[in-house]
């Protein structure tokens, strides 16, 4: 009977510690939805970006992607976001779809410009850049390596058995 009581108390301690851990993780994860003014940006590709993704300036969360739609005339992806009302974005602000890590999710990186005029409620970020996909990056690396190998074939390699020319 005494052993059963010790196991029960130990189980309760584990559950309390786990509860504190969950509360700490929730508070430090900054999962809140940013309420603010709406801004739109058009991209040629937003692969991996989704509603609820972060909008960040210098790595600091300043907004949330609220929805993604397709412009039926230009066939570009429209990203609708909510920006913290305390952050005013200049008209020449740029936005880019960025990766958190090699295998991580995507977020919207915003780079404020230097214009004196600010983007109003419902305004649009004009300068955008889509991030290249992993397949594109790997293809560029392989292509570059093949070109380096071809350039080395026509170099001043010495015939077999002789020292290289300097």
From TrEMBL:
Coiled coil: none annotated. Residues 36-113 form the Mce/MlaD domain. InterPro entries: ABC_MlaD, Mce/MlaD, MlaD_Phospholipid_Transporter. PANTHER family: INTERMEMBRANE PHOSPHOLIPID TRANSPORT SYSTEM BINDING PROTEIN MLAD (PTHR33371:SF4), INTERMEMBRANE PHOSPHOLIPID TRANSPORT SYSTEM BINDING PROTEIN MLAD-RELATED (PTHR33371). This is Outer membrane lipid asymmetry maintenance protein MlaD. It comes from Azospirillum oleiclasticum. The gene is mlaD.
